[in-house]
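[DERIVE STRUCTURE TOKENS]
===
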Amino acid sequence: MTVELTLADGVAEILLDEPGKLNALDEQAIADLAAAYTRAAEAGVRAVLLHGQGRAFCAGRDISNVDPATDDAEGYLSQVVTPLLAQIDSFPAPTFAIATGACLGVGLGLLIASDVVYVADTAKIGSPFANLGATLDSGGHALFFERLGAHRTLDLIYTGELISGSEAVQLGLFSRVVPHEEILAFTRARVGRVASGATQAFLASKRLVHELRDERVGLWRSLAAENAAQGALSGSADYAEGFAAFQQRRSPSFTGEG
């Protein structure tokens, strides 16, 4: 697979470019994708956009040459896929992804690991693994259970039913649905605006949300963490600029630095 990285105006745009295989990922492709995120972080970008070429975002693992008799499925997931998802999840800037067409398996995991996901009305999301004798992976169980509950989660898994982009947003899986022909321009515009925003404030919110997700800290611990984050931000140049711009009735000019 070809993974293309473009760096411009504080934004890293990462493209999965193997449309003939619905952007399915083998181990080399995952290594290339991880390298793209590493290069983006080293470049100090202030936002990332991940999307796929063609009619699908990512149909999951490329199993076209996998021999089940010798396949180390756990090793592939735990040593290859999970580190990539953790890298995306902890990326030091806001991350966005566009869901178009098939978003399955590892492809779904890439969406789960991203901060914001905009979904095309053409998207198909779910767990088609029943026909493979396999189970949903890459964080799919956690996402579906948290947002849909046990019954709907197992219904999707048992039946292999895929839900549309519109339904996925209605169910609270992702951010918003956008017509397929408009979604790339729509997302690029939003990512561009975020890349010129108060990056450190965004990262503070990202950490707070991750703490709620991963540690289930509850209202009062989260409120205390918010207070501490605000206190830390109050000494930053962007905080001073934001207040000055408000008081002077002008648009702020943020550097994204602490």
The radius of gyration is 19 Å.
